[in-house]
User: Fold these one by one.
Assistant:
Number 1:
Amino acid sequence: MIVYNELLHVAFRAYARCRCGIASYHEFRRFFIEKRIEAFREPLE
């Protein structure tokens, strides 16, 4: 389960970096808290 969680985290950060220009960890956390999982609906599908 930990490996799966880490895989999703890395994939979400890469997606946020490419699509939204979010590079830092703190920006990513703020983005994820504000947008929740809805921001990542496309890569999950």
Number 2:
Amino acid sequence: MVESNNDEVIRGNKENLDKKVRIRTKEELEVRKIEFLKICELLDRLKIRYFLQTGILLGAIRHKGFIPWDWDVELSVYANEVEPKMDQLLHEIEQTGFKVEKYYKELSRLKIDFIGKFSRETTVYTIQGWNHDKEKRVFWRNKFRVPDHLFNKMSKIKLFEKDHFVPDPPESYLTHQYGDWKKPLQTSDKSIYLTKRFSGISPIKIFLKKIISLIK
């Protein structure tokens, strides 16, 4: 999907558009597809359960592929399952031809950032861990929160000829994270594209950012 002339895509600020959220080339998206499937195969081989969430899920549902201006690919896992396998996972990522840029082993922010053929200006890959708070009935990582019923039961969707687990139902999850997820937003500003109930960002800040972006 590319930008239309009738405001179908709401632009963010000019600095973001010039850099992070540029439309990726056909070659860049093809390499991203190959590398994404490679990561999925690696996780399957290590028997690590993963699921699609955030922009990769939004792209799969809304674009039937990647969001053309997205800058990262995030695969979600259950932190308590991955923590014992972190060293092995880091080793296998490097052995598979990727370069690990940074990682955190702590359950509260378990995460691995790495790149493939291109630099991080084209695509950053992330494996991120989620924790379950049974008492509050949420899954969480850092400041982000998701009602646990969306992660407790998973369904499957097909993306690039492979089945992947996703929150169930995926549309309800996307509404929780993005609000009106059917309307494309070409911006990297989290206060514009994430809801407060997901991100904890002040609704006043979100409102002001949207007004500023529309004025620009």
Number 3:
Amino acid sequence: MEIVNATGRRKTSVARVYVTPGKGEIKVNARDLKEYFLSEIHQTLVKQPLVALKAENQYDVTVNVEGGGIKGQAEAVRLGIARALVSVNAENKPVLRKEGFVTRDSRMVERKKYGRRKARRRFQFSKR
């Protein structure tokens, strides 16, 4: 098996994921996973697809991620890893689909409209 790549997106974050056979190293933006995602919650979020397939120590994962915040980036990386694992072996898809890792979360920030303070918030009305 050679390098398999996939893209994961969430909010405004985009993660380009490269999966190769290896011993379980995860590099994010040329840094170790624990160094990039300091929170334990975000680290487990990223590892979820590998844990679901019991393949934590079978693949090395390299990720380039940009845009958005830490949570959005972690979820984008999770989707990218899940898609890459499906590319590696199509039999992985039902397991990952059941856990909800293959579905793209399409929720985005609603744009600000003119004449409003935010997307939907109006300016304060003054009768006098």
Number 4:
Amino acid sequence: MCRGCRRLSPHLNWVRAPFAYAGAARTAVLNLKFRSGRYLAPLMGNLLGTWLTGAEFDVIVPVPLSSRRLRERGFNQALLLGEHVSSALHVPIATDVLTRIDRPSQHTLTASKRLGNLAGAFTCQEPDQVRNARVLLVDDVVTTGATASACADTLAAAGARHVSVLAFARDL
């Protein structure tokens, strides 16, 4: 069992990422996220899409940013990746299903504090798009699994049948 898996939501079917959050993969994620590396999204997203060929989902949901973080960054890296995964898998993407309330940044918090920080941070605005659906949640990186777990709990409460997570890199 992976480090941290016991902390993950029981609503998560699985969490997969093709790369460890180290070396070139870590650099790619950080450049995408913090150094205007939008040009990396097609390559990273297409890698994710081809890595998951054959899996069956009804809808792709990118992990949302808070409105403040979206204004600061100018884009949502999970949405950029999700668009390419959507194209590769021929599965529709639902961009406005989840919304996120602004909370302190996760990267400075311990694993246990991350879970508490995200309690109630996500809401499902479009439950009809996920009700009884097999949902693929897309993000750039999974570290402790707190964000993925909080999103999965919210999607399950809205009626999602299965929630799985695909990230570019993982540090579980």
